[in-house]
Here is the input.
Amino acid sequence: MDRAEVISASDLERYGYCPLSWWLGRQSQSHTPEQEQGDIAHRDKADEYRRIRSIEQKAWDWERMVFLFSLVATVLAVTGISLMRATGSADINWILPLLSIIWFLAVIAMLYFSAQRGRAIIQVRRLQIVAIVGLVLMVVAMNIGNLLQADPMVSMILEALALFWLIAASIALYLSLSASQKAGEYKTLEGLEGDIHYVGTDSSPLYLSERLGLSGRPDFVLEIDGQLIPGDLKTGRTPKGPLFSHIMQVAAYCLLIAESSGKRPPYGLLRYGDEEHEIEFDPELERMLLEKLEEMRKLMRSGEVHRNHNRPGKCASCSRRESCPERLV
Here is the structure.
Protein backbone atom coordinates (compact mmCIF):
# COMPACT_ATOMS: atom_id res chain seq x y z
CA MET A 1 0.00 0.00 0.00
CA ASP A 2 1.18 3.54 -0.86
CA ARG A 3 2.46 5.29 2.28
CA ALA A 4 0.31 8.30 1.30
CA GLU A 5 -2.74 6.14 1.96
CA VAL A 6 -1.58 5.01 5.41
CA ILE A 7 -3.89 6.40 8.08
CA SER A 8 -2.57 7.08 11.57
CA ALA A 9 -4.42 6.45 14.82
CA SER A 10 -4.28 10.21 15.43
CA ASP A 11 -5.99 10.78 12.05
CA LEU A 12 -8.75 8.42 13.19
CA GLU A 13 -9.20 10.43 16.38
CA ARG A 14 -9.47 13.71 14.46
CA TYR A 15 -11.83 12.15 11.92
CA GLY A 16 -14.03 10.85 14.72
CA TYR A 17 -14.22 14.37 16.13
CA CYS A 18 -15.10 15.97 12.78
CA PRO A 19 -14.19 14.88 9.23
CA LEU A 20 -13.67 18.47 8.09
CA SER A 21 -11.36 19.24 11.02
CA TRP A 22 -9.32 16.16 10.13
CA TRP A 23 -9.19 17.16 6.48
CA LEU A 24 -8.07 20.71 7.22
CA GLY A 25 -5.34 19.43 9.51
CA ARG A 26 -4.23 16.99 6.83
CA GLN A 27 -3.98 19.78 4.27
CA SER A 28 -2.07 22.27 6.42
CA GLN A 29 0.19 19.84 8.34
CA SER A 30 0.76 22.63 10.90
CA HIS A 31 0.26 22.47 14.64
CA THR A 32 -2.11 24.83 16.37
CA PRO A 33 -1.23 26.38 19.79
CA GLU A 34 -3.61 23.94 21.47
CA GLN A 35 -1.85 21.00 19.84
CA GLU A 36 1.55 22.38 20.83
CA GLN A 37 0.44 22.54 24.48
CA GLY A 38 -0.85 18.98 24.26
CA ASP A 39 2.44 17.82 22.74
CA ILE A 40 4.40 19.38 25.61
CA ALA A 41 2.19 17.66 28.18
CA HIS A 42 2.59 14.33 26.37
CA ARG A 43 6.38 14.70 26.26
CA ASP A 44 6.51 15.41 30.00
CA LYS A 45 4.42 12.33 30.74
CA ALA A 46 6.49 10.23 28.32
CA ASP A 47 9.66 11.26 30.19
CA GLU A 48 8.11 9.98 33.43
CA TYR A 49 7.16 6.67 31.83
CA ARG A 50 10.58 6.25 30.25
CA ARG A 51 12.22 6.82 33.63
CA ILE A 52 10.04 4.09 35.16
CA ARG A 53 10.79 1.75 32.24
CA SER A 54 14.52 2.38 32.65
CA ILE A 55 14.34 1.48 36.34
CA GLU A 56 12.33 -1.65 35.52
CA GLN A 57 14.93 -2.64 32.94
CA LYS A 58 17.66 -2.29 35.55
CA ALA A 59 15.67 -4.55 37.88
CA TRP A 60 15.34 -7.19 35.11
CA ASP A 61 19.05 -6.93 34.27
CA TRP A 62 20.08 -7.42 37.90
CA GLU A 63 17.62 -10.30 38.17
CA ARG A 64 19.39 -12.05 35.32
CA MET A 65 22.73 -11.33 36.99
CA VAL A 66 21.48 -13.13 40.10
CA PHE A 67 20.82 -16.18 37.95
CA LEU A 68 24.20 -16.00 36.18
CA PHE A 69 26.23 -15.32 39.33
CA SER A 70 24.48 -18.18 41.11
CA LEU A 71 25.28 -20.44 38.16
CA VAL A 72 28.99 -19.55 38.34
CA ALA A 73 29.04 -20.01 42.12
CA THR A 74 27.32 -23.40 41.88
CA VAL A 75 29.60 -24.72 39.12
CA LEU A 76 32.71 -23.62 41.03
CA ALA A 77 31.43 -25.17 44.25
CA VAL A 78 30.51 -28.47 42.59
CA THR A 79 33.86 -28.58 40.76
CA GLY A 80 35.72 -28.06 44.04
CA ILE A 81 33.67 -30.72 45.79
CA SER A 82 34.21 -33.14 42.90
CA LEU A 83 37.97 -32.64 43.14
CA MET A 84 37.83 -33.12 46.92
CA ARG A 85 36.09 -36.43 46.37
CA ALA A 86 38.76 -37.48 43.86
CA THR A 87 41.57 -36.74 46.34
CA GLY A 88 39.69 -38.54 49.09
CA SER A 89 40.04 -35.54 51.41
CA ALA A 90 36.48 -35.85 52.68
CA ASP A 91 33.52 -38.19 52.62
CA ILE A 92 31.18 -35.97 50.63
CA ASN A 93 29.60 -38.30 48.09
CA TRP A 94 26.13 -37.27 49.25
CA ILE A 95 26.68 -33.55 48.57
CA LEU A 96 26.84 -33.72 44.76
CA PRO A 97 23.40 -35.31 44.26
CA LEU A 98 21.94 -32.82 46.74
CA LEU A 99 23.44 -29.82 44.90
CA SER A 100 22.23 -31.21 41.60
CA ILE A 101 18.68 -31.51 42.86
CA ILE A 102 18.80 -27.97 44.24
CA TRP A 103 20.11 -26.65 40.92
CA PHE A 104 17.45 -28.43 38.86
CA LEU A 105 14.72 -27.03 41.12
CA ALA A 106 16.22 -23.53 40.90
CA VAL A 107 16.24 -23.65 37.09
CA ILE A 108 12.62 -24.80 36.95
CA ALA A 109 11.53 -22.10 39.41
CA MET A 110 13.38 -19.34 37.53
CA LEU A 111 11.80 -20.27 34.20
CA TYR A 112 8.35 -20.64 35.74
CA PHE A 113 8.34 -17.27 37.49
CA SER A 114 9.77 -15.48 34.45
CA ALA A 115 6.93 -16.85 32.32
CA GLN A 116 4.29 -16.19 34.97
CA ARG A 117 5.29 -12.54 35.28
CA GLY A 118 4.51 -12.01 31.61
CA ARG A 119 8.07 -11.33 30.48
CA ALA A 120 8.73 -11.06 26.77
CA ILE A 121 9.26 -14.52 25.26
CA ILE A 122 12.77 -13.59 24.09
CA GLN A 123 13.84 -13.13 27.73
CA VAL A 124 12.37 -16.49 28.72
CA ARG A 125 14.24 -18.15 25.85
CA ARG A 126 17.49 -16.56 26.96
CA LEU A 127 16.96 -18.00 30.42
CA GLN A 128 16.25 -21.39 28.86
CA ILE A 129 19.56 -21.26 26.98
CA VAL A 130 21.45 -20.27 30.11
CA ALA A 131 19.68 -23.04 32.06
CA ILE A 132 20.69 -25.67 29.48
CA VAL A 133 24.29 -24.45 29.48
CA GLY A 134 24.22 -24.49 33.28
CA LEU A 135 23.00 -28.07 33.37
CA VAL A 136 25.77 -29.13 30.98
CA LEU A 137 28.36 -27.38 33.14
CA MET A 138 26.90 -29.05 36.22
CA VAL A 139 27.35 -32.50 34.65
CA VAL A 140 30.95 -31.66 33.71
CA ALA A 141 31.65 -30.23 37.18
CA MET A 142 30.24 -33.32 38.90
CA ASN A 143 32.52 -35.64 36.94
CA ILE A 144 35.65 -33.55 36.62
CA GLY A 145 37.09 -35.24 39.69
CA ASN A 146 37.08 -38.54 37.80
CA LEU A 147 39.03 -36.96 34.96
CA LEU A 148 41.59 -34.87 36.82
CA GLN A 149 43.85 -35.34 39.80
CA ALA A 150 44.25 -32.08 41.70
CA ASP A 151 45.86 -30.82 44.83
CA PRO A 152 43.42 -30.26 47.73
CA MET A 153 44.47 -26.60 47.72
CA VAL A 154 42.87 -26.21 44.28
CA SER A 155 39.57 -27.39 45.73
CA MET A 156 39.82 -24.84 48.53
CA ILE A 157 40.54 -22.05 46.05
CA LEU A 158 37.49 -23.04 43.98
CA GLU A 159 35.30 -23.04 47.06
CA ALA A 160 36.57 -19.56 47.98
CA LEU A 161 35.79 -18.33 44.45
CA ALA A 162 32.33 -19.88 44.72
CA LEU A 163 31.76 -17.92 47.92
CA PHE A 164 32.84 -14.72 46.14
CA TRP A 165 30.33 -15.29 43.34
CA LEU A 166 27.64 -16.13 45.86
CA ILE A 167 28.24 -12.77 47.54
CA ALA A 168 28.02 -11.10 44.10
CA ALA A 169 24.68 -12.85 43.51
CA SER A 170 23.42 -11.55 46.86
CA ILE A 171 24.40 -7.99 45.93
CA ALA A 172 22.71 -8.36 42.53
CA LEU A 173 19.58 -9.63 44.27
CA TYR A 174 19.55 -6.58 46.56
CA LEU A 175 19.93 -4.20 43.60
CA SER A 176 17.19 -6.00 41.67
CA LEU A 177 14.76 -5.82 44.58
CA SER A 178 15.63 -2.17 45.24
CA ALA A 179 15.03 -1.17 41.60
CA SER A 180 11.77 -3.16 41.52
CA GLN A 181 10.54 -1.42 44.64
CA LYS A 182 11.42 2.02 43.28
CA ALA A 183 9.70 1.29 39.95
CA GLY A 184 6.65 0.01 41.84
CA GLU A 185 6.42 3.21 43.86
CA TYR A 186 6.60 5.37 40.73
CA LYS A 187 3.98 3.23 38.96
CA THR A 188 1.66 3.53 41.94
CA LEU A 189 1.95 7.31 41.74
CA GLU A 190 1.18 7.18 38.01
CA GLY A 191 -1.65 4.65 38.44
CA LEU A 192 0.03 2.05 36.21
CA GLU A 193 -0.20 -1.73 36.42
CA GLY A 194 2.09 -4.39 35.02
CA ASP A 195 5.39 -3.63 33.29
CA ILE A 196 5.92 -0.76 30.87
CA HIS A 197 6.63 -2.44 27.53
CA TYR A 198 6.69 0.66 25.30
CA VAL A 199 6.57 4.46 25.60
CA GLY A 200 5.43 6.43 22.57
CA THR A 201 7.63 9.37 21.54
CA ASP A 202 8.67 10.84 18.18
CA SER A 203 11.73 8.57 18.25
CA SER A 204 9.89 5.41 19.31
CA PRO A 205 9.32 2.59 16.79
CA LEU A 206 6.17 3.07 14.76
CA TYR A 207 3.51 0.37 14.84
CA LEU A 208 2.55 -0.20 11.22
CA SER A 209 0.13 -2.55 9.50
CA GLU A 210 0.80 -2.69 5.76
CA ARG A 211 -2.25 -4.92 5.32
CA LEU A 212 -4.63 -2.41 6.90
CA GLY A 213 -2.79 0.77 5.95
CA LEU A 214 -2.78 1.83 9.60
CA SER A 215 -0.02 3.22 11.80
CA GLY A 216 0.38 4.73 15.24
CA ARG A 217 2.41 5.25 18.39
CA PRO A 218 0.46 4.54 21.58
CA ASP A 219 1.37 6.79 24.48
CA PHE A 220 2.28 3.62 26.36
CA VAL A 221 1.94 -0.15 26.19
CA LEU A 222 1.73 -2.16 29.41
CA GLU A 223 2.48 -5.85 29.78
CA ILE A 224 -0.18 -7.24 32.14
CA ASP A 225 -0.48 -11.00 32.75
CA GLY A 226 1.31 -11.72 29.48
CA GLN A 227 -0.98 -9.39 27.48
CA LEU A 228 0.19 -6.21 25.72
CA ILE A 229 -2.29 -3.45 26.60
CA PRO A 230 -2.01 -0.13 24.69
CA GLY A 231 -2.93 3.13 26.36
CA ASP A 232 -3.71 6.68 25.28
CA LEU A 233 -3.36 9.82 27.41
CA LYS A 234 -5.64 12.85 27.00
CA THR A 235 -4.39 16.08 28.52
CA GLY A 236 -7.40 18.33 27.89
CA ARG A 237 -10.64 18.54 29.81
CA THR A 238 -12.06 15.42 31.38
CA PRO A 239 -15.39 14.47 29.74
CA LYS A 240 -18.21 12.67 31.52
CA GLY A 241 -17.30 9.49 29.67
CA PRO A 242 -14.99 8.25 26.92
CA LEU A 243 -15.49 10.18 23.68
CA PHE A 244 -16.18 8.28 20.47
CA SER A 245 -13.14 9.76 18.70
CA HIS A 246 -10.87 8.71 21.56
CA ILE A 247 -12.35 5.20 21.60
CA MET A 248 -11.54 4.89 17.88
CA GLN A 249 -7.94 5.87 18.54
CA VAL A 250 -7.54 3.29 21.31
CA ALA A 251 -9.17 0.67 19.07
CA ALA A 252 -6.61 1.47 16.36
CA TYR A 253 -3.78 0.87 18.84
CA CYS A 254 -5.33 -2.45 19.89
CA LEU A 255 -5.54 -3.54 16.26
CA LEU A 256 -1.91 -2.56 15.65
CA ILE A 257 -0.78 -4.50 18.73
CA ALA A 258 -2.75 -7.53 17.53
CA GLU A 259 -1.13 -7.29 14.08
CA SER A 260 2.43 -6.89 15.39
CA SER A 261 2.35 -9.40 18.25
CA GLY A 262 -0.14 -11.95 16.90
CA LYS A 263 -1.99 -11.75 20.20
CA ARG A 264 -5.21 -9.75 20.44
CA PRO A 265 -5.41 -7.33 23.40
CA PRO A 266 -8.68 -7.82 25.33
CA TYR A 267 -8.91 -4.07 25.94
CA GLY A 268 -7.10 -0.77 25.69
CA LEU A 269 -6.71 2.02 28.24
CA LEU A 270 -7.95 5.59 27.88
CA ARG A 271 -6.76 8.03 30.52
CA TYR A 272 -8.13 11.50 31.24
CA GLY A 273 -5.96 12.92 34.01
CA ASP A 274 -6.48 10.60 36.99
CA GLU A 275 -9.47 8.86 35.40
CA GLU A 276 -8.88 5.64 33.50
CA HIS A 277 -11.30 3.72 31.28
CA GLU A 278 -10.94 0.22 29.90
CA ILE A 279 -12.08 0.12 26.28
CA GLU A 280 -13.08 -3.43 25.40
CA PHE A 281 -11.65 -4.42 22.04
CA ASP A 282 -14.49 -6.62 20.84
CA PRO A 283 -15.37 -7.64 17.24
CA GLU A 284 -18.04 -4.92 17.03
CA LEU A 285 -15.52 -2.18 17.84
CA GLU A 286 -13.07 -3.63 15.32
CA ARG A 287 -15.77 -3.71 12.63
CA MET A 288 -16.61 -0.05 13.32
CA LEU A 289 -12.93 0.86 13.13
CA LEU A 290 -12.49 -0.81 9.74
CA GLU A 291 -15.59 0.97 8.44
CA LYS A 292 -14.15 4.34 9.49
CA LEU A 293 -10.88 3.55 7.73
CA GLU A 294 -12.78 2.78 4.53
CA GLU A 295 -14.81 6.00 4.85
CA MET A 296 -11.62 8.04 5.24
CA ARG A 297 -10.02 6.47 2.17
CA LYS A 298 -13.06 7.27 0.06
CA LEU A 299 -12.90 10.91 1.19
CA MET A 300 -9.15 11.03 0.48
CA ARG A 301 -9.82 9.88 -3.06
CA SER A 302 -12.76 12.23 -3.67
CA GLY A 303 -11.27 15.25 -1.89
CA GLU A 304 -14.75 16.43 -0.86
CA VAL A 305 -15.13 16.58 2.93
CA HIS A 306 -17.78 18.35 5.01
CA ARG A 307 -18.72 18.94 8.62
CA ASN A 308 -20.88 16.12 9.98
CA HIS A 309 -22.50 17.77 13.01
CA ASN A 310 -24.56 20.81 14.07
CA ARG A 311 -23.04 21.43 17.48
CA PRO A 312 -21.71 24.97 18.04
CA GLY A 313 -19.85 23.82 21.15
CA LYS A 314 -17.91 21.32 19.12
CA CYS A 315 -16.90 23.98 16.62
CA ALA A 316 -15.90 26.34 19.44
CA SER A 317 -13.54 23.68 20.84
CA CYS A 318 -12.06 22.77 17.47
CA SER A 319 -8.39 23.66 16.88
CA ARG A 320 -9.14 24.27 13.15
CA ARG A 321 -12.11 26.61 13.64
CA GLU A 322 -10.28 29.71 12.35
CA SER A 323 -9.67 28.19 8.93
CA CYS A 324 -12.89 26.16 8.71
CA PRO A 325 -15.30 27.35 5.96
CA GLU A 326 -18.25 25.52 7.59
CA ARG A 327 -17.79 26.52 11.23
CA LEU A 328 -20.93 27.27 13.23
CA VAL A 329 -19.38 29.90 15.52
About this structure: Residues 33-87 form the longest helix (55 residues). The mean pLDDT is 80.
